[in-house]
Amino acid sequence: MHALNITKVAVGCEDVEALAERTRNRTADGEAPIQTRYRPTRHGELIGGSLFWIIKHQLVVRQRIIGFDETPEGRCLIRLDPVLVTVRARPKRAHQGWRYLTADDAPDDLDGGSNEGAAMPAALIRELAELSLL
Fold first, then answer.
1. Which single residue of 39, 51, 85, 109 has CA 20 to 30 Å from 119?
2. How far is it, in rounded angstroms, from Cα 7 to Cα 130?
């Protein structure tokens, strides 16, 4: 059985490079955690799955979900692998809250590479995706 995935809007990120910079800035001890108000209901099924980021109405990259914790203030801490993995871009409308994505419905990795050292620059990937060529 495959782990479940979720999607999330990369608020304030105009492109993958902005998300990569944000991820680098919060990476510590091999993790890049993010805070949210509420823990996803199906959080136990998400460990080992991925958080797929939406940028400009497209699923473009993912990060593996390592686990969940709670901050002292009671917020949910999602522990993510700091590696951004570029996926075959797929249209996805922005949303609030969590949207679950099964392994069968998730976009494939683009050449199995991360954004760093990918065969194509992120800007080219985005442009090709906007033309529906990826």
1. 51
2. 19
